[in-house]
Amino acid sequence: MSLTELELETSPENAEGLEDRLFALGAQSVELFDAGDEPLFEPPPGTHPLWSSVRLRALFRDPLQAEIARAALQAQDSTPGAAPVGTQLSALDDRDWVRAGLAGLTRIHSGGPLWIVPSWETPPDVPNGVYVHLDPGLAFGTGSHPTTAMCLAALAAVPPAGQTVLDYGCGSGILAIASLKLGATSALGVDIDPQALQATRLNAARNGIDEPRLPTATPDRDPPAAAFDLVLANILAGPLIELAPTLARAARPGARLLLAGLLDRQAEPVMAAYRDAFDIAIGDRRDDWVLLVGQRR
């Protein structure tokens, strides 16, 4: 799946409002960066300073939606009293994402018995090792990114033995396959991207997992209601919020929920979307990323 990046530069006092506006205009994620080369030292307690010039990078699934967002911001820019905003659009090629994911990819110990092993690597000789043999293809998920690594560590710490699993936004299929290798009875992989579903099926076959144990589907229809003991979603903050009712319906009472793909500052709005149905909290942090862990009430 290709993405479109909308890059903006603005003043620090307008950055937070602009970030909210971008999400309202359909951005899947927004990150803030220093627009110059200005060090930001330890702030006083209770303050959240930004640089004197802030660059925002917003990702959109739909290039037309990114164009509409840019037009809306430029129209705002022409309004008297509005702060000026510079905008730039660029397409992110699928192949660039794949190369980034493959760079330096080697076998990874994910915790407990679980190892992620590319097809060109030899599995380590460890007692009772559980190995996921992975070629990511044109899909996200190699086990090296902090969001995927936190999900794998959570699976290794509490293996889903005998459970049914929903992997929503399955990408390469790494989480569904790891769940099955750790004893899950079945897993459903759902993704909007046909290339991701193809990668999941190919990776499942490489791991000796047949389609009845790991079927794949697009999100045209909701997953079966109250059918899953474990619900996984490693995507982005915006879609996670939108999917809260869908994932809540799919989870059985007492089911475990693992949500990733979001930054620390995005955790609270995502948790708020799930609190009606789940007891939920931050379960892990790596770099600026967090893993949310919940249980269906």
From TrEMBL:
Function: Methylates ribosomal protein L11.
Protein name: Ribosomal protein L11 methyltransferase
Molecular-function annotations in GO: protein-lysine N-methyltransferase activity
Domain of life of the native organism: Bacteria
Alphabetical keyword list: Cytoplasm, Methyltransferase, Ribonucleoprotein, Ribosomal protein, S-adenosyl-L-methionine, Transferase
Main location: cytoplasm
Coiled coil start-end: none
GO CC annotations on file: cytoplasm; ribosome
Family the entry assigns: Belongs to the methyltransferase superfamily. PrmA family.
EC number: 2.1.1.-
Signal sequence segment: none
Any single biological process term in GO: methylation
Location relative to the cell: Cytoplasm
UniProt cross-references to Pfam families, sorted A to Z: PrmA (PF06325)
Gene: prmA [H]
Catalytic activity: L-lysyl-[protein] + 3 S-adenosyl-L-methionine = N(6),N(6),N(6)-trimethyl-L-lysyl-[protein] + 3 S-adenosyl-L-homocysteine + 3 H(+)
EC class of the enzyme, as a word: transferase
Annotated residues for binding of S-adenosyl-L-methionine: 148, 169, 191, 234
Matching HAMAP family: Methyltr_PrmA
